[in-house]
Every structure is written in structure tokens, then in C-alpha cells.
Amino acid sequence: MRSPIITLTTDFGLKEPYVAEMKAVILSISPNVNIIDVTHGIDKFNTRMGAFLLASAAPYFPKGTIHVAVVDPGVGTERHPLIIQTKQNLFVGPDNGVLTLAAENQGIEHIYEIRERKTMLREISNTFHGRDVFAPAAAHLANGKPPTEFGPEIHEVSTLKTVKPIKRKGVLVGEVIHIDDFGNVITNLGQKELEQMSTRDRIKIRLAGTKLDLKLCKAYDEVKTQEPLATIGSHKFVEIAINQGNAANTLKIKVGDEATLYRS
Amino acid sequence: MRSPIITLTTDFGLKEPYVAEMKAVILSISPNVNIIDVTHGIDKFNTRMGAFLLASAAPYFPKGTIHVAVVDPGVGTERHPLIIQTKQNLFVGPDNGVLTLAAENQGIEHIYEIRERKTMLREISNTFHGRDVFAPAAAHLANGKPPTEFGPEIHEVSTLKTVKPIKRKGVLVGEVIHIDDFGNVITNLGQKELEQMSTRDRIKIRLAGTKLDLKLCKAYDEVKTQEPLATIGSHKFVEIAINQGNAANTLKIKVGDEATLYRS
Amino acid sequence: MRSPIITLTTDFGLKEPYVAEMKAVILSISPNVNIIDVTHGIDKFNTRMGAFLLASAAPYFPKGTIHVAVVDPGVGTERHPLIIQTKQNLFVGPDNGVLTLAAENQGIEHIYEIRERKTMLREISNTFHGRDVFAPAAAHLANGKPPTEFGPEIHEVSTLKTVKPIKRKGVLVGEVIHIDDFGNVITNLGQKELEQMSTRDRIKIRLAGTKLDLKLCKAYDEVKTQEPLATIGSHKFVEIAINQGNAANTLKIKVGDEATLYRS
């Protein structure tokens, strides 16, 4: 029999025992669950980064997976704790947008506020609803408790404004949405934008004031070591990299920088 | 059937394969065990930090969990390898205090020295008893081998001196016992000390020479972004934080600093 | 019943969801597999470090374990994806040497190129064969698919040149092959080299220009705190350490430095 999977995405880091406390609570309620860390390295309080990375990973998990995300600067305030149901998965976390992108990509079916006191730990701290509210909710879901039993259905969910590329005088203005641990620069320009502006094998892009004319590669190794290149990254966005180097450091690029695609 | 849980708390970091080697040994002896990392980010050789974080996480794990802690600057010397039995859990590690706080919180029932050669790996290195002694002991315990079969019962265990808050001329002098990855400053002042000195909604505290008059909040968000506050943290100690900021960096506070509570 | 074990060794770090995506793919194909991280902290693109750490950890895993290593600067190029079969284990990863040391230590029996399209994800990205090729291959192997069904047997595998200690005018010239997270300096000088050059309890070694005459200890604690010592480390190589300190930082030693053993 397949164990249910619960994933965890947080900004807790791995130095503290906070993640372990969530796992302890989950396993106390649902002993046979398989807990997988998506990442605990979200920049502190950065709900946008949490939303992007959860949305990147979620499509690869099997149907029925329960995704918990806790990037929660508003813990203890009036922001609601949520369960979002899609055809594919359940998402558990605060109503601050961290769940929304991943859930919307799958199509949101129902949203429930977690309000039922007996789905939570007996004692609820001020500052750690990851352990006291979200972990037990996920574990009860893994045990088969239906989402309808956690609280009332609601019909709105917070969304983080995402920037879409815009057309301006024959160019497409997008932006850098993520820089990964390799220093690869991930933009919000997808295959569709690329097709509008580029020939098949090169792209012209301006990043942080620098205009680049890059080979559109299928492998990093198609250019020489330490040379820049463009590629369609593993999440299907245009990505600027340096073969065996760190593009963000070398080109001094940060998240939020404009990425303007020129016709080539 | 519920798999037995073994937790690991070490100062090994996650760059090296040391943690994986411990897990490999455990799974070779007890294939169905569920291994949960508490943390491998203890500051090197800091038994006091190891003891505090293990004691923080342990209460959330189910009865029967086996906690292994390896912060072991004296590896290979005469310090004994131990199994400590409480009503709730088993603790495995060196006799240097790293296990004691968590075990004492549950009430120590028996202490055994691990001496039986056949409970260890065939070859024992000089420097890595985590893999060669503690991991196999935990795995055999998970398999149901009784603690009495590992070696003689002993009646003393090392304890790390912990500082209790002391009363002095109408103030309570405590100290900073931990700074977490968010920069939250955790003191050894609990609910009881707070009740002696404070009204219900504000506290006066001097930290590293700075006198602060802070709102005692239920949520970080009760003060403005980047403003300091006090709260009862998730482990029930008075905690100084900055809403969406890093209190320890901003206020220049480190572990061991005095935290003096004034009447308010 | 024992779940099959799949281990992961990568240079992906833990900030990104890349490791989680590999685990998601594995669990989608083989739900009962037990996934153990060896390390994701390999220095980016450093196949040599990946090979060393995988070879360090592999011997401790049970027979039948499937080891996946993805340090893959040549992803998307002509380098082959491989399955290497030994008597003990299966190894999955790129043909760039990262698997070879661990596999050769066990004795290579067969090498297969992964070429069968239906053993891979439906869509294959340019840049992430860890998720799209190696993870599904490992999962299918865990499900019992024989290695012969992934592609043709081949008879050569890339090897990273390893330096062996050489004799020169009565000294043995080795080198530093790894510095661990504690700052312990691990050389390629083993027990055999030591026996040629040393008395039983002291060694004379020159490291990065500094000549050291060190006690050969069974425990770090045999010398005073902050004093240097030599020991046979947990992987059976001569290791220079500082009791409760960081030898590499203090002595300014880096990987690749000469380590010359003198007669003592």
C-alpha cells in the first residue's frame, strides 16, 4: 500500500528543530505518512519565493500528495489557516498567497478555513502555527479526514501579484523571478514569448542594463567554460546561465531586475 | 504497523556524508525504522546547544521514539556511551550532558552504559562513534533488544550546569540561552518569572546593556514591521523578536548575555 | 518486507526544490522506496568531491542499495547516462567519473548505458537529467526492472585520475584529498604508508610548507584543546585535526596541497 505523502516548504532553515517538531506532530497523528522536504531555505518571510518554489516542485508529486507551506510573517494574526483542494492535491498553509500559485496551476476546486479546534494541537503557541495548526491538519488529511470537517468553505484566497511580460515598442519586458543556488537567472519569459521575439538559436536580452546576445542552448556545455548562454530551464522559462559558472554573481543580477527580450 | 522512529541530533553539518553513514548503519540493522533529523546544525562541539535543541524537540515525538544525539568532542576517550531510559523515550549518545536535559524533563528511569561489543559495528574507528557505536545501538533498540542487554546499569550521568534566573534587588536576572535562525532571542525567563515582574501586556527588560520597554504580543504582527516586541515563544520562554526582522543582529545580542527583567 | 533504498548525492544544495523534484519522480514510480540523502553539498560541478564522498558512504549501505549521483556539468551533452552494477549495489548517474570510485571499490560487474526512452520522464529538460533521466531509472530499478532493459551494455567508464602517494628520497609524497566540515584535513595516506614511515605513536608530516611532528592519537582529546594531532580517520586515511578546533583554517590548508610523510 502506498503511504500518503506530505511535503514541507518553509523559511525555517535547518539549524533549528522547528522542522523536526512539525514532523514529530505529523507522525504522532499519522505514523505511516512519508514526509518529503521541498525546501526549508526560503528567504525569511519571502512568501513570493515560497510560492514560486512550491509551484515548481508540486507538479512532480503523485496525485493525493498533501503540500504544507509555512512562510508566515502574519502568524497569530487574523490571516486564516487554509486547506485548498485541487483535482490533484491538497494544500495546507496560511492565507497569504504562498499556496495560491501552485494550487491555481492545478485548478482550485474548494477552499476551507481551518477552524475546528480539535484538528489542532491541544496547546497552540503564539508563533508556531506550522507545528500547532498546519502539521496536525495535514496529518489528519493524510488519515482520510475530509477537508469539509476542518471548517467552513470560503470563496476567496490571497494572491501574490505576479508580473506578466508586457509588450513595449517591439520588445518584451519581463523580469527575473528567481536566482537558483547555481546562480542561474530564471526569468518570467516562457516559450511563447521566446517564439515571438527570437530566431531558433540565439536570443537578445537586456538584463540589469547589460545587453546580451546569447546562444540558445540545449546544454550548458555548448558554449565554452565560463561563457554565458541562454536555455529553456527545467521549469520552462528562459534562463541565463554561465557554463560551470555563476551567472547572477558575474553579471550582477538580482531578483526583480528587468529582463527585456529583443527581436533577433 | 507503526515503524519505530529514530531521531538524529548532531554537529556534523549536511555537507559531509557522516549523517548518511549513520543512517546506512541503522537501516542495515533495522530496515523499517523511520529516521527523522532533528538538526545537524549544532555549533561544532557545543553540547549545551545540542542539549537545548534536543530538549525542545523531544516532547513532540511519540512514545517509544529513540533519540540519538552526537555532539561528542570527547569521542574515543573514557566518556561512556549511554542509553537513558525514560517513561516516554530512549536516548542514545555520549555521557557529556547532551542527552541529560531532554531525558530529565521526562524523568530518568534507568541509565545503561553501552559496553557489549556485539551491539557495535565490527570495526570501531577512533573518531566516529556516531556511526560505529550509537547508530547500531539505536537500531538494535528499535529491533526490540532491551536496554539491559547493552551493558551494566549505572547511576550517574553528566549534567550541563544550567543557569536559573536569580532575584536581585527587585529584578530578575536571567540570560539568553539561544538565538534561532530568525534572530529571535530566547531567554531562560519563563511564564512564572514573567508573572512576578510584569503587568499583562508590557515587559521591561535589559539585554546586552540596552533597556527595552516592549509590548508582550501574541503575534509578531501586533507591532509595526521592523519594531521590537516580546512574546512567549513556542517553547514557553520569553523571546525578544523584531517583526519581520532579526532581533539578535539589530540589538547585537548573543547567547550568554544577561537578560534582566524589571517590574513593569 | 525491506523497502529498497535509493541514495542521492548531488551538488544541488538544499535551498532549491531540485532534490524534492527528484524524490517526487522516484516516489511516483516506486512508492515504497526509502530515499536517503548522502549529501547535496558537493561543491558545484566538483565531480572529484562527489566521487570521494559517495565512495566514503557507499560501503555502509546494505546490499541492493541503489546509489544515484548527479554532479553533472556536462548535462545535455554526449556524456552517457549510466547504470553500473557491482556485486553489492547499483549506481546511476552521468559517465563523468562521479560513480566510478565507489563502484570500483566494490568491483564493477556490468555497465549499461541508459538509452531506453520509456525508462525516462515523458518530457526531458535540457538541464535537469537528475529529475528526468536518473531519478526515474533508479525508481524502475527499485521496482525490479533489470539493468539490461535500460540500454546496451558498454565496456568503458570515465575515471577521475586519482593521485597515489609516491616515494621520493626516503619520504612519501601524498596530498590532501578532502577537508571536512570540522576542518579536519584528510590525506590520501593510508595505514600502509604510515607503517612504512612512522613509529607507532608519532608522525612527521609537511603540509602546505609547515612541518609538523604530531602525536598519532586514538582520540582527539589525547592532546590539549586547540592543539594539532594526527589520527586514522573514519575512512582509514591519515587525518590532521585540532582538538576542538579547525585544522584547515588554523594551518591554512586546502584540498590538493602536498602532504609529505617523513620517517619518524
Give a summary of the structure in a few sentences.
Three copies of one chain form a homotrimer. Chain A has helices at 18-29, 47-57, 100-106, 129-142, 191-197, 247-251, and strands at residues 5-10, 34-39, 66-70, 81-86, 90-94, 108-113, 153-154, 166-168, 171-179, 185-190, 202-207, 210-217, 228-232, 237-242, 258-262. By secondary structure, chain A is of the alpha+beta class.
Descriptive overview:
Three copies of one chain form a homotrimer. By secondary structure, the first copy, chain A, is α+β, with helices and mostly antiparallel strands. Chain A has two domains: 5-154, S-adenosyl-l-methionine hydroxide adenosyltransferase, N-terminal (Rossmann fold), CATH 3.40.50.10790; 166-262, Bacterial fluorinating enzyme like (Elongation Factor Tu (Ef-tu), domain 3, Beta Barrel), CATH 2.40.30.90. Chain A is built from six helices and 15 strands. In chain A, strands 2-1-3-5-4-6-7 form a seven-stranded mixed sheet, with helices on both faces. In chain A, strand 1, helix 1 (18-29) and strand 2 form a beta-alpha-beta unit. In chain A, helix 1 runs parallel beside helix 4 and helix 2 packs parallel to helix 3. Chain A is elongated and about 60 Å long. In chain A, 53% of the residues are buried. The model of chain A has no long low-confidence stretch (mean pLDDT 94). Chain B binds chain C through residues 12-21, 23-25, 27-28, 31-32, 44-45, 73-77, 125-128, 131-132, and chain C through 2-3, 5, 7, 9, 14, 34, 36-41, 53-54, 56-57, 60-62, 65, 180-182, 217-222, 231-234, 236, 239, 241, 243-244, 246.
